[in-house]
Design a protein that fits this description.
Radius of gyration of chain C: 20 Å
CATH class of the largest domain in chain B: Alpha Beta
CATH topology of the largest domain in chain B: Rossmann fold
Strand content of chain B: 15-25%
Distance between the termini of chain C: 68 Å
Radius of gyration of chain B: 24 Å
Number of helices of chain C: 7
Largest sheet of chain C: 5 strands, mixed
Largest sheet of chain B: 6 strands, mixed, barrel
Number of domains of chain B: 3
Number of domains of chain C: 2
Oligomer: heterotrimer
Shape of chain B: globular
Number of strands of chain C: 12
Strand order of the largest sheet of chain B: 16-20-17-19-18-21
Chains: A alpha/beta, B alpha/beta, C alpha+beta
Helix content of chain B: 25-40%
CATH topology of the largest domain in chain C: N-terminal domain of TfIIb
Helix content of chain C: 10-25%
Largest interface: B-C, 61 and 56 residues
Chain lengths: 404, 548, 278
């Protein structure tokens, strides 16, 4: 099956990605006019009916989230686009923002209309200077066309300063408020008390782009792709030992093996050309063996059978010569470096995991590693600490993947 | 003084906790963050809970930095500001008409008196833009509750009582007294200023603010004490100094005060004390005042070596207890007083603090329900406490909101007068004084511990003025007023406005700031105008040149 | 609106008023909840995770100190997951910080059966003593990063904001801004950070010196509550006296004026009371 082009523009699209011409070419004028002609509740109903789930990793039903923000009490509401893409092996939002920045922004405007927000922020990863430039240009275009500005929703771009943790939604809110990017304890959830204590809708770039394409068409059109559980398409960041690494848009339900091997997708395993394992879901993801890969499709239920998750759509491929203990050490160092330091299980736990792995603990200290991992999963404040040991546990559970 | 005249008792009307639940906090002449840091915690809790905070102060301080608005006012022009605020509020009909009608008197005359105090007129006096005065007045009036607090920036002026009355007028206009989250609060500078007043350490008062000129009051105390009480109020401090000057007062007993360093125009004070026939000083240190004494009684350190009570700025009467033994021949204050009386032929028993307190509470109404046991259990009690079942009073004057408001609270017609000492070409700078966070008054207590910021006294001088005079940052300069001359290092600071300089009184052994200050006092309260003296500044070589 | 909330704690029904935390509800059943970072006069920092419990329906454990109690909650406080997390918190901190004066941490280790040596041998918080002023010293090798000092310096009391957490992960630490010494920072020496520190990482200079000299004697200390002699706020002081000398000043945490907080004069300005023999 050829790659789908919905969120990403068709390769025939030649206009400047941030230009008014592109705005019309992609149908965003249609999306905006349709959205503004609809009652906010109708939009929310459509988003619910479409089955869109959050694409940042948590896969929370988008329409349900919008409804809670709209119902929450507050004199002011905010929409925040989370473009602080920092997960290892994840680069799909960068591709999206560079290739079609207007789509995500249109999603922001539709969301703001639906939840009655007056102000929106785009929080973009500090290293994404090129994407930020595109986003700025696109914002300029929307202003010029009168969709953003004094009479409508105001959108402001905020640049992150290089911390993985700032992508965690509540840490991101703290960062926008000018505070140290530390996660907040939930509840209260941002939908009720977010930016400056006001109800706030936070969505990943890709989720918002999905909303834009939905409104440019309709629910039936949207559901033409996808599985019975999950409609629509997903952007996948394919990296490692594949012939054609890159960002691909594929429908939910697509077989993982095909994703790796189709000639217009991964194009097959590179390196030794023999598949060793994949890490799905980023640094906090799960190692899958080739048998598990062959038995799975790109969908939440299918992967859950092996304790795995699509996460942000990162798929790292390792041939059979890679020592996964080495990979694990890299991941452990990443978490140890990127823990914000707020809570004990994560701050000290990530360091001890790294030390244990560096000193052969994968074989000699398995019980200690498991107990430590369990405490990190159970007692850390935020998703970073809670998921930091996931890859480690997945490897402990798959001793065949560890060589020697 | 102002509060007593309007409400019958001279005390803050609210509790610190009222700052937590108010909508508006107006601090006038108060640097609470440095002078009353723990009250400032309560204030900031209110800000966190959503209150707007406005600070009126000529100088930038740690307090003004936390305010939503810092109203930078010319020294000594507070009445112009509050009269103009009242003008705007009355002109626009924003005042609390039911409250004014029900609980106050003298509104018409007051309204008439502020009718000419337009924001534009006040702007010329205060240096605050007219639209800011208008906006402040409207925000103040719109706030459902307001806590007004002030410190020595209001009371250390020759017109101190008028300043306070001006603030009371503002509160009465909008009903900001006698209820939760609203009140008038003088933040007391010394630990037991309130307690001293409570206990009758005022010329015309007996314990519980009872009026000495009232025969019933006198008879009650005469019966209890078995002695006659003069119906003529005694002298306040200012009157004492006048009496000394006129040789009508020849002996003085000073207990725990250091007027040689703490009072304005210290050179005059030193001369008057030296000329006395007899000076007795009771203190914990050989202060410069004690050095002048004929007899010195060494006393216990009150908070750590003796028993008793203090009353704080929210009328909380609290127990003070001995934690260590006093050294040498030092004696408890009560023992010294009683022994002195006995050696003068009076049969005073030597009572403990608790016995004395119990006697006092029998003779007053406000303290009657406060026992040592209850204070211990409840962490102090806020007077009035009418009986031993009464819980204490977190807010005063709630009667003003009840169907029978009792005596009505009077508005006062107060007019602005400039500071006594005007600036001239000879003395072109305004010296204002105040406290610094780590230090206290004349430094008797605070200069003993080793604070990292202790660098002695310095002057805050605006860089523009410094450049004009060719003064380097940190240069030691001469400061002269009509009364004296000191040398002090001057540091550049934009906390003061050009034309104004700031010094503290904390290091009198090195820099006797009070040689400069003016002993012009308020005729009603006796407080001196520490906040405004005219001075000139000069570089030392120039000063030397002039003298030569 | 219900003004009473009904919960079950380890199967026991309990009713608490609206506004209570899960910790309050647990304590209402006469159980104690171990805490390190929680302090009665500070907003919960949620940092130590010693107070976590299992809440039915929640994927992860919840911090009972900050989680608002809700009607119908079912709480378990002694499950394997809860006990494992608490034990790990103690073991991780013991492997990192000097717990000599961290009495709450010692207690946590004791009740959870922690093995203090299990994760030792790796990186620690060993670092030089910061002795840069005459009022208190900072022995950050004892710090457990509970955030109490940051909150007391910030909006929960002092509003000075002189210190904050800097760095991240294992390198996160308390900093007075750009790594400055305290005298160069915004610190005003109120010592409220010292008052809330649960580990002795922040400790009065006098106490520190006496401990170094082996002269600090808990049994010989008397503690007397009195009132400060400086300004008119009326702060309650607890004078800690050893051999007739004031060696430390604190304030009762439940005092309505101070809530345990003082200013520099009240906390450190007592020496005048004991200069003698001049």
């Amino acid at each position: 099956m050829p790659e789908v082009r919905r969120l990403l523009p068709e390769s025939t699209c030649r206009s400047d990605p941030a230009s008014p011409a592109r705005f019309t070419e992609r149908g965003w004028d249609r999306a905006m006019e349709r959205a503004l002609s609809m009652d906010p509740d109708e939009i929310i109903a459509d988003v619910k009916a479409s089955g869109i789930k959050g694409r940042g990793g948590a896969a929370f039903p988008t329409g349900v989230k919008w409804e809670s923000v709209k119902k929450a009490l507050g004199d002011m509401r905010y929409v925040v686009m989370n473009a602080d893409e920092s997960e290892l092996g994840t680069f799909k939002d960068r591709a999206l923002l560079q290739q079609d920045p207007l789509g995500a922004l249109v999603g922001v405007l539709i969301a703001a209309h639906a939840v009655d927000a007056q102000k929106a922020y785009c929080y973009i990863r500090g290293e994404y200077r090129q994407a930020e430039g595109r986003l700025k240009d696109a914002l300029g275009t929307l202003r010029q066309l009168g969709w953003v500005g004094p009479n409508g929703v105001d959108i402001e771009i905020r640049r992150g300063a290089g911390a993985y943790i700032a992508g965690e939604e509540t840490a991101l809110l703290n960062s926008i408020e000018g505070k140290r990017a530390e996660p907040r304890v939930k509840p209260p959830f941002p939908t009720n008390q977010g930016l400056w204590g006001r109800p706030t809708l936070i969505q990943n770039v890709e989720t918002l782009a999905n909303v834009a394409v939905l409104l440019a068409h309709d629910v039936n059109w949207f559901k033409e792709y996808g599985s019975s559980d999950t409609s629509g398409t997903k952007l996948i960041g394919l990296s490692g030992h594949v012939r054609r690494p890159g960002v691909y848009e594929v429908p939910f339900g697509y077989p993982l093996a095909n994703l790796l091997n189709d000639s217009d997708l991964g194009g097959g395993v590179a390196g030794s050309q023999r598949l060793g394992a994949i890490l799905i879901g980023g640094a906090a993801g799960t190692f899958l063996s080739s048998d598990e890969i062959n038995d799975s499709v790109l969908d939440y239920a299918s992967l859950a059978r092996y304790g795995a998750n699509i996460g942000s759509g990162a798929l790292m491929v390792f041939d059979d010569t890679v020592d996964l203990r080495w990979v694990l050490r890299k991941l452990a160092r990443f978490f140890s470096d990127e823990s914000c330091g707020q809570c004990v299980p994560c701050r000290i736990g990530t360091r001890r995991v790294l030390e244990l792995i560096e000193h052969g603990g994968l074989t000699t200290r398995q019980d200690d590693l498991r107990e430590l991992s369990q405490a990190m999963r159970d007692a850390s404040i935020c998703g970073l600490g809670q998921t930091a040991p996931v890859a480690l546990l997945s490897l402990l559970d798959r001793p065949d993947l560890i060589q020697g | 003084m102002g509060l007593t005249a309007v409400f019958g008792s001279g005390a803050g009307t609210s509790s610190y906790e009222d700052f937590h639940r108010t909508a508006f906090i107006l601090l006038v002449g108060s640097n609470a963050a440095e002078a009353h840091p723990i009250i400032f915690h309560h204030i900031m809790k209110g800000v966190k809970n959503g209150a707007e905070m406005v600070v009126v102060d000529p100088r930038q301080t740690l307090t003004t930095k936390k305010a939503h608005e810092h109203v930078r006012i010319a020294v000594g022009s507070d009445i112009a500001l509050v009269n103009a605020m009242a003008h705007v509020i009355i002109r626009d009909g924003l005042y609390h008409k039911e409250f004014v009608e029900h609980a106050t008197e003298g509104f018409e005359a007051f309204a008439e008196s502020v009718s000419t105090w337009t924001a534009e007129r006040a702007s010329l006096v205060t240096g605050i833009a007219a639209d800011r005065i208008e906006s402040l007045a409207r925000r103040y009036a719109a706030a459902p509750t307001c806590m007004i607090a002030w410190t020595l920036g209001i009371t250390e002026h020759h017109n101190a009582v008028d300043n306070v009355r001006g603030l009371i007028n503002l509160a009465l206009l909008c009903g900001n007294v006698g209820r939760s989250g609203s009140g008038l609060n003088p933040l007391r500078g010394q630990n037991n200023v309130q307690g001293g007043g409570d206990m009758g350490a005022l010329p015309g008062r007996l314990p519980g603010f009872q009026d000495i000129t009232d025969p019933d009051v006198r008879h009650k105390f005469e019966a209890a004490w078995g002695t006659l009480i003069s119906k003529v109020p005694g002298y306040d401090q200012t009157q004492m100094f006048h009496a000394m000057e006129e040789n009508r007062l020849k002996g003085l007993f000073v207990i725990g005060e250091n007027p040689v360093q703490s009072d304005a125009n210290s050179r005059l004070v030193r001369r008057l004390l030296s000329d006395l026939d007899a000076l007795v000083v009771q203190d914990i240190f050989m202060t410069p005042t004690a050095e002048l004494a004929d007899v010195v009684f060494p006393a216990f350190v009150s908070f750590a070596e003796s028993e008793g009570t203090y009353t704080n700025s929210e009328r909380r009467v609290q127990r003070v207890k001995a934690a260590r033994k006093a050294p040498g021949e030092a004696r408890d204050d009560l023992w010294i007083l009683a022994s002195l009386a006995r050696s003068m032929g009076h049969d005073w028993p030597i009572l403990g603090a608790q016995a004395l307190f119990d006697e006092m509470r029998r003779l007053t109404i406000n303290f009657r329900g406060i026992t040592y046991e209850r204070m211990e259990k409840l962490r102090g009690m806020q007077w009035p406490v009418y009986d031993e079942n009464h819980p204490g009073s977190s807010v005063l004057h709630e009667r003003l909101w009840q169907s029978d408001p009792g005596p009505k609270a009077p508005f006062a017609v107060v007019d602005w007068e400039p500071p006594v000492e005007g600036l001239s070409s000879e003395y072109p700078f305004l010296l204002t004084t105040g406290r610094r966070l780590a230090f206290f008054n004349t430094g008797v207590q605070s200069n003993v511990y080793d604070h990292p910021h202790k660098i002695g006294e310095w002057m805050e001088l605006h860089p523009k003025d410094a450049m004009d005079l060719g003064i380097q940052d940190g240069e030691i300069i001469a400061v002269e007023s009509k009364r004296g001359r000191v040398q002090v290092p001057a540091y550049y600071s934009e906390a003061v406005s050009p034309g104004t300089v700031f010094m503290s009184l904390h290091f009198p052994d090195e820099v006797t700031t009070n040689d400069l200050t003016i002993d012009a006092t308020d005729p009603q309260s006796g407080t001196a105008e520490f906040k405004a003296a005219a001075v000139r500044l000069s570089r030392l070589d120039e000063a030397a040149g002039k003298e030569a | 609106m219900h003004d009473q909330l009904r919960l079950t704690i380890d199967g026991v029904n309990v009713t608490v008023p609206q506004g209570s935390t899960v910790k309050d509800a647990i304590e209402a059943t006469n159980q104690s909840v171990p805490t390190l970072c929680w302090h009665e006069n500070l907003e919960p920092a949620n940092a130590c995770r010693a107070c976590v419990v299992e809440l039915k329906g929640s994927r992860v454990l919840v911090a009972s100190c900050s989680r608002a109690a809700e009607d119908g909650m079912e709480i378990q406080t002694t499950t394997e997951r809860v006990l494992n997390s608490r034990k790990l918190v103690a073991e991780l901190l013991m492997s990192t910080s000097n717990a000599d004066l961290a009495f709450d941490l010692q207690h946590l280790a004791e009740i959870t059966g922690a093995n203090p040596g299990r994760f030792s041998g790796g990186a620690t918080w060993e670092r030089p003593l910061q002795d840069d002023n005459s009022l208190y010293v900072r022995d950050m090798a004892k710090c457990i990063l509970c955030y109490r000092c940051v909150q007391a310096c910030g909006e929960d009391a002092q509003n000075t904001f002189a210190i904050s957490v800097a760095g991240r992960g294992f390198e996160a630490h308390i900093d007075a801004g750009f790594g400055r010494e305290l005298p160069e920072s915004d610190c005003v020496y109120c010592g409220n950070c010292v008052a809330v520190c649960p580990t002795g990482a922040l400790i009065g200079k006098t106490e520190w010196n006496l401990r170094q000299e082996g002269r600090w004697n808990e049994e010989g200390l008397t503690r007397t509550d009195t009132i400060c002699s400086y300004c008119g706020v009326g702060c309650a002081l607890t004078l800690h006296v050893l051999d007739n000398r004031i060696v430390k000043v604190t304030s009762p945490a439940d005092h309505p004026v101070t809530h345990g907080m003082l200013c520099v004069k009240g906390r450190y300005g007592y020496e005048f009371a004991q200069v003698e023999g001049e």
